[in-house]
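User: Okay, second chain of the day. Same drill as before: sequence in, structure tokens out.
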Amino acid sequence: MVKVYISADIEGITGVTHWDETDLQKEESKAAREQMTAEVVAACEGALSAGAQEVWVKDSHDTGRNIIAARLPREVRLVRGWTGHPFSMVQELNESFSAVVMVGYHSRAGAATNPLAHTMSGQIALLTLNGHPASEFTLHSYVAASLGIPVAFLSGDRGLCDEAALLNSHITTVAVKEGIGEATVNLHPEVAAARIKEGVAAALKGDLSLCRLPVPQRFVMQVRYKQASRAHQMGFYPGARQMDEAMVEYAHENYFEVLRFLLFAT
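Assistant: Same drill. Structure tokens below.
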């Protein structure tokens, strides 16, 4: 059975430019939630047209309660809220899934390619994995890799899509926006949804084995905080080392242990 997992964020959705548009409590978020839902629906329809019998969607932004559930196809199961599991934005992912799709993802902390760029938390200035700056896409792609599941598709801002191409050029990407300073240049909402639907369908019909990431034998995560006091606190996590006044390092062969550290580090 073809079973597809879709993880959806909002800062990489077309049109979303300001933090107020990402806050469920703000009136401006209504249009962003509408478009997030439309892009997720498009991804679901693409997966179903490619032969998926079951589709799970994780609402992975902030409260985890942004997607308008009634608009999703009937075959979809929606995961709302958070369990506190270290898999975070891909919680409930397991070996039964055939592929992972990511929608509305965004550039990493410190990047200049999205005015809403961040990695997991606003506390973090920069997060690296094995010496390379890492985005939420990178972090959760390795969750899939650790389970032997390919990441088939990604949509979001241009900067993140370029990052994904460096990680694995076989992952299908659709850039729906581009960040310039505090501004964004965006595709029309209907065009973005159409390209996502087509992209997901094409990706799932392709050779998914090419989209599997190799799993490193050892992971070294470094987290640089905006506040030195947070680095001091996280330096007490078992196995972590405070590298300087604002950076903490944690290394382990088991990626789940790295994710456990990250759960407390953000």
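Residues 29 and 140 are 25 Å apart (CA to CA).

User: Thanks, on to the next one.
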